[in-house]
Specification:
TIM Barrel, 7-stranded parallel sheet, 11% strand
Length: 355
Amino acid sequence: MDLGSELTMAIENRAFLQVCRGEKPERTPVWIMRQAGRYLPEYREVRKRVSFEQLCRTPELCAQVTVQPIDRLGVDAAILFSDILVVFDALGVDVRFEPGPQVEHPVRSHADVARLRDGDPDVELVYVMDAVRACKRALADRVPLIGFCGAPFTILSYLVEGGSSRDFEHTKRLMYAEPVLFGRLLERITELLCKYLAGQVRAGVDAVQIFDSWAGALSPFDYRMHVLPHVRRLVSHVRSFGVPVILFARGNASLLELVAGVGADVIGVDWSIELAHAIVSVGDDKIVQGNLDPAILLGPPELIETRARALVRAGKCARGHVFNLGHGILPATDPAHARHLVEVVHDEGTYERDR
């Protein structure tokens, strides 16, 4: 059932959704991963009053910080303020942010997996669905709202490692030594994520991004063998609701060809590969998103302008291009630099310049 396309026309700025659906907008759309975050002084003011966990669980505050970059930067889409690990609430797993995520009891055995709860996201994560509705009210149809989740492997890696990791020792040990258990855990996580994203769509998100932040930890062989079927299932399920799906697998440019075959509407690209080369890898019939190195925003405005214009021009070789960073914006970024980036992209991305 298509819950998304019939609502698209009500949105004032439809450039982002037009590109995601394979249409040509008046200009290249731009949004920024982690655009609601610590680099914004207004976000830091909110965080003075509440913890990160409280913020994620307070719908009206989520809406407030989700809208902040729309007002300050003029980006073409909002992304729901939340965290990929809130889904642990539905699994009965406690996670603390100190400031990075810490899981007190990692899941590494048959007994650990058996203890996981099969919670209903519409109940256990109702605060996320309420936040989606609050965001839609606050945005008032100015721009579309992007929902999101972590990809199955990325969620599993946090669950098994107990936090961030450099070598993913516990995750890979489980995958190689207990492949059946590894697959079973991925299946449970994928089922949860299917329900979770369906709930976000029902609550009103206009598109969805799936973050496979730790995909680069795996070789293409292992990603294809152990992970890709679950990603394909998740993408297919969400697309059945009629909203565009962006799949962003970070950290290994050689995975792009695999990711391009999963069926997502848009392929996210990190900064480890030039966009022109990424377009060749996935095919110029695909829609891409990315991929400016976030650290460039720490440089002078002249550098930002030069690199952004070149990237917009490269993106025009694809079927469609959503301008973004190659990963999240850095906390040290000057908001004025982020706004300058948006203005440059809009100027260079105006299709009248091509005539």
